Structures are given as structure tokens and as C-alpha cells.
Amino acid sequence: MSEENCVLFVDDEKDVLSSLLRQFRKADFKIYTAVGGKAALEILETESVNTIITDERMPGMNGLELLQIVKKKYPDIIRMVLTGYADSGTIIDAINKGEVYRFVSKPWSKEKLIEIIEQAFSNYKTLQQNRKHMEIIIEENNQLHKDIVLREKNLEISREILDMLPIPVLVITHKDTIGFFNNEADKLLDIQFDIDDPLDSVFPEHIAVKILQGFKKNGGQSSCIWEIEGRKLTLNIRALRTSDFFQGLIFFINLKGKGV
Description:
Number of strands: 10
Strand content: 15-25%
Structural class: alpha/beta
Oligomer: single chain
Shape: rod-shaped
Number of helices: 7
């Protein structure tokens, strides 16, 4: 018998509860009984129950009133009503409001009721699994959000550092686009380009090819010469091994080894 398979029968008549206990004494689930709604709520405060089956017509607190309270306090519990009186309007209204999983008409068949209870256990288990999956997803999303915030902060700091360098620098993404350029690079190149522009919008095609090849050879460190407007610039190419977004940087150096 699984510990989580526990059903609570509620009725205002002790004879009915005794009959239920006799019928299901060999069933593969644990049974609690409560005489009336108040006693049922007291049991739910201390015992682990995943299915509650209550009579509809009880004095003081009827079955639907009880299940309304159960829904608010224990929303995961599968809620059912045993009744011989409920009209179709009451049934439809209770089911639409999510107060009742199912109405079971009196007199009931033992075999049919066991089948319904086992379905309730299955639904409860599925609900718990879905809840756990949702909790995992929420936790993963929260962690992802924290990682994104941290990366954005680190990226902002890196940009500030690059902007302070007296050497022109371009950062290239894994999509072969411009990921960042500092003020010195913007002044040096004097070309209309922006973040996310393709690499060949800044460099001639043969230079762009050399840059991309440079990220992948010689340990990610290489250089090439670029002639622009009568000047010869050395492009020092450095790959980034620890970035998921950027593949490397380009430092613009003149042939004497000083920043342009």
C-alpha cells in the first residue's frame, strides 16, 4: 500500500461510514473517516490525504460547503461527492468552479467506486509531478535570470574598461558581427557602422576572412596588416575562450607598436 494513497470518507451517519470501511477493508489504500465536515477538517490538519469523498446532504456544513473550504486550504486534494439528490445545475456549477472533481450517485457500486478512487489517486500523482516540474522550471528560470543579470553587469564593466583604453578595440561575436567597439575605434575608423553589423561592413572581405581565421589558429592569437586610407595598421587578433557570445577582440596597432 502506497503511503500517499489515502482517502477520507465524510458522512453525518456513522452506519454509512462503517459500511464503507467494511467494503474497502481489503483495498490497497488507507482510509480515514469523519462524521461531518468539522471532523473532516480536523483530520486534514494532521493527516496526509489526497482524496476526499463526502456526502452532499449533512447538517451544519453540507458536502459542497466542506469542499469549498478544502479547495482553499488544500487545493491539491481530489474532491468528490456521494449524492442521491443533486440536480444537474448543482453538479455543473460545482464542477465548473473546480470545487468538485466528480459526483458519484447513490447507491454506488463497490467496483465502480474503487475504479473512481484509483483514477483520483492517479490524477493526484500527476498533479504533484506537474507541480514539482513547475517548481524546477521556476527555479531554473530564476537562476537563469540571475546569470543574465550577472553577465550584463560583467559586460557593462568590460565595456567601461575597453572604452577607457587608449587603443582602438573591436569585439566580434560568434555570429561574425560587431559586438562592441570603444571610442578610439569609432574615431579611428570613421565609418558608419553599429553594434550587430556584419564584420565585412567594417573590413574588406579578405581582411574579415583573416580575422575570423585568426581566432581559430595559433592559440587564438594572430595578426594581419590592413591598409586603410594610405595607412598601414596591424590588427592584433585575440580569441576569447570563456565567452558564449563573443569570439574575440581586435586591437588596432600601428607598425611601430604603439596605439594609433
